[in-house]
Design goal:
The protein is α+β, with helices and mostly antiparallel strands and 233 residues long. It has one domain. It is 16% helix and 29% strand. It has 6 helices and 9 strands. A hairpin with an 8-residue loop joins strand 6 (146-149) and strand 7 (158-161). The protein starts with 6 loop residues before the first helix and ends with a strand.
Length: 233
């Protein structure tokens, strides 16, 4: 089990080495990595999956200063055996449980960790969640968008998974016990193509094979970049 660490202690351990610098292009600002881990309880025992994700940030100064970022990495995969695979995407969950922005899941917790001294500038709801977790835990809408596939070989069979009710998707007594992040210097996780043999063929397109999305089917809302990103988003 991962040790509980507060976002602020994670930031302190970095010693300010990753403080953002004024710059205008990727590669000249800050780059850091964090591990996102999901712990799932099942009748067959505890199951865990994690992914090391890299975030690169840089500042632009066109019409005022703003911080930009890109993510390199892949979705978390939790192997639940005969029950199937659970994926935590490189995308957040919206207020109503729908697909949210990539920033929400992939960047916000880690950015707050890096800028612990500016916690008061973070979203008030996130501040409340942060203080209530007692560590690097993600709760409620901080948890990334979760999905499974009825047929892992057919991307069009993708289904959303409720983090508060994994049993609905995977069977009785299956539940998400914990979702956490921690800073790390480990290599970025790769190899998701082993589980998703069709991913490369999408070439970033939507899961239904189209290059124009918008739904209503989830397979026409999710795209390859939600599962794997090489930056430049």
């Amino acid at each position: 089990m991962m040790a509980r660490r507060s976002f602020l202690s994670i930031a302190a351990s970095l010693g300010g080495a990753l403080a953002l610098a004024g710059c205008d292009k990727p590669g000249s600002g800050a780059a850091y990595r964090y591990r996102l881990t999901l712990d799932v309880e099942t009748p067959e025992g505890a199951k865990t999956g994690s992914s090391v994700i890299e975030v690169r940030t840089w500042e632009t100064h066109f019409e005022g200063k703003s911080t930009n970022h890109e993510v390199i990495g892949q979705a978390v995969v939790v192997d639940l055996g005969a029950r199937g695979l659970l994926f935590a995407l490189l995308a957040g969950r919206g207020e109503n449980g729908g697909l949210g922005s990539v920033d929400h899941a992939a960047y916000l917790p880690a950015l707050v960790a890096l800028r612990g001294e500016k916690l008061q500038d973070a979203d008030p709801a996130f501040q409340k969640n942060l203080s209530s977790t007692g560590g690097g835990d993600l709760i409620d809408n901080e948890i990334p968008f979760l999905v499974r596939f009825r047929d892992i070989d057919d991307p069009k069979t993708v289904e959303a998974v409720d983090p508060n009710d994994l049993a609905e998707s995977f069977g009785l007594s299956v539940r998400l016990k914990r979702a956490t992040i921690e800073m790390t210097s480990d290599p970025v996780t790769t190899g998701i193509e082993k589980q998703l043999g069709w991913l490369a063929a999408l070439k970033g397109g939507y899961l239904d094979g189209q290059f124009a999305g918008g739904g209503p089917a989830l397979s026409n809302i999710l795209h390859g970049g939600n599962f794997k990103s090489s930056g430049g988003q």
